[in-house]
Amino acid sequence: MFIFSNDDINAVLSMRDCIDAFEHTYRDVAAGQAVNGHRSDMITETARADSVYLLKMVGAVVPRYAIGAVRINSDILSFPTHNGKTRKVKIPAAAGNRWVGLVMLFNTQTGAPLALFPDGVIQRMRVGATSGLGVHYLARHDARTAAILGSGWQAGAQAQAIAAVRSLDKLYIYSPDETRRRIFAQQLEQQLSIPVEAAVSAEQAVRQADIVLCATNSLQPVLSHDWLRPGMHVGSIREGELAADELKIFDRIIVHDPGNMADDHLVVARGIEHREKSSPLMRTLDQAPALSALISGQVEARQSAAEITAFLNYHGLGYQFAAAGAVLLEKALAAGRGVELPDEWFTQDVHS
Amino acid sequence: MFIFSNDDINAVLSMRDCIDAFEHTYRDVAAGQAVNGHRSDMITETARADSVYLLKMVGAVVPRYAIGAVRINSDILSFPTHNGKTRKVKIPAAAGNRWVGLVMLFNTQTGAPLALFPDGVIQRMRVGATSGLGVHYLARHDARTAAILGSGWQAGAQAQAIAAVRSLDKLYIYSPDETRRRIFAQQLEQQLSIPVEAAVSAEQAVRQADIVLCATNSLQPVLSHDWLRPGMHVGSIREGELAADELKIFDRIIVHDPGNMADDHLVVARGIEHREKSSPLMRTLDQAPALSALISGQVEARQSAAEITAFLNYHGLGYQFAAAGAVLLEKALAAGRGVELPDEWFTQDVHS
């Protein structure tokens, strides 16, 4: 049983490997050869009056990799209101101002636990790799320019993902803070070895791009359909980034997994998140085809160079932790990373 | 973050403490002050052709103890057929012929992980403590004799549980193997400091007892309603131990949690377990009041010395791991047990 750190994971897990593993896995999903667990959200009071405690479990088994994965999040959530809008904020309440999210992997041939590690880096990679598959299957093959809206933790992975599936001549970055977007552009230019430019507005970035990926914390739509033109592909990782009543501009919308939305309504039902099931966005999310159907050929990809396509990469799936976990395990063990703990600590000579 | 072993847990976790913690917890459950997660059963192929892999997650949060608990089972299941009956057998396929079941505890005030330990001993204690609460609330207060049918791993905890809630003059043991039941009786006599007798038949044991707890692996009913008499209490921990068409003998039936049955139908739906939702047993299990309703006074307990009562302790709940885990944590830390690992391995400075 190995313990990996986020540093271990950063050192060995590449976006390209994740995208490849996810592509195989979504094919298996479409073929019914992988199983996703129920997501369970357990919400109770916590010590802080303005907060709640959320214990969340997801899981999946991907037989191709002989891996079962469980992801557990143990979060203190607060809901600050700013300018009349309520945001959900995770409080780093563990010692040293830290957050708690863990992934545990198991071997499906022996049942044995294989690894335990924090979910932060892998979470970011999985969101990026999934957006990358959206680009791979929906964007024009000759797309050469891209824009990232956002400059945070997730935005960097989105940039890596585009660069992994398309040969870019130019990448534009926009986020409201000028210093942040400039630094972020410099970092990406070094990291991706392509020209990266900080744009002065979202509109300027979008109007120059074939592919736009939104990776913001915004509660307001971050782009206008007026800026879009035939042949573009747009990705979004957070509800609210795209105006729900402007989704009709898209000729083709693919979502991560429509069935996966249902469980999330639990959170909504408890009044923690305010979202109408009957809203235009929810109707779209419930009815659009899944990424696995796209990848397996059950639904059509882009049908012309003029289509405007969208991939709404909302709500994760347990599969992603099993698939990225399989890559991590192989690469980390090959690189001699991690702390090995005695297997006997995590197995037993009695059974329940 | 502490790692505890089954030995640590055996050394510090008492049946009395578990029963007390469960009693508080079921009151909270009835009051809506604790949350149980969805159970998720993920079943796929495994290497052995005659087996399947099952990754199972349950969880719960009990604010009284500021504890969230997740239990994960990673099992290779086979289904051998013997005399036309199919049994479910967990194969100890991990290195050293070991099984894999783990519980992880989290602090609801900080989110921090607190402990990780195997589930075997605590699973047995929780089944015992729950049966003990059934006895406490349903058996006659002047019950002085008891019978345990079974001599296995669970049977010992059932005996401890009765002894914790009633002053017994005599305990009878029956299981088919004469040597096993004799040795088990001797062990219990030493452990419980009460006279324990190995009976020559289930009927002989039952006819002499005020309280009967069944804790067998039998697929056939282990007692006949002809052996029961007014004033008795019967407990069962496994479906099939009591004849479904004889349940009408009971004046009062309490089940562990009727709502909890639903998820288990998943396993049934996959043809792994063969059980009809419309069977008399399933109808009883779906309609009978829950233990939490009994303990909180929402439904009546025994109403006369003549009633024959039953508690069907089928299907665990995540709450039990949070409640027993809270006791374990307090007692084990006070006793200096466990291996402490760095908290930073299980927390992070990024969030997902």
From TrEMBL, chains A, B:
Tell me where on the tree of life, at the top rank, the source sits. Bacteria
Q: Which InterPro entries match?
A: NAD(P)-bd_dom_sf (IPR036291), ODC_Mu_crystall (IPR003462), ODC_N (IPR023401)
Q: Which Gene3D superfamilies match?
A: NAD(P)-binding Rossmann-like Domain (3.40.50.720), ornithine cyclodeaminase, domain 1 (3.30.1780.10)
Signal peptide range in chain numbering: none
A GO cellular component annotation in the UniProt record: cytoplasm
One family name in Pfam for this protein? OCD_Mu_crystall
Q: Which PANTHER family match?
A: KETIMINE REDUCTASE MU-CRYSTALLIN
Return the protein name.
Ornithine cyclodeaminase
Source organism per entry reads [Pantoea] beijingensis
What lineage is this protein's organism placed in?
Answer: Bacteria, Pseudomonadati, Pseudomonadota, Gammaproteobacteria, Enterobacterales
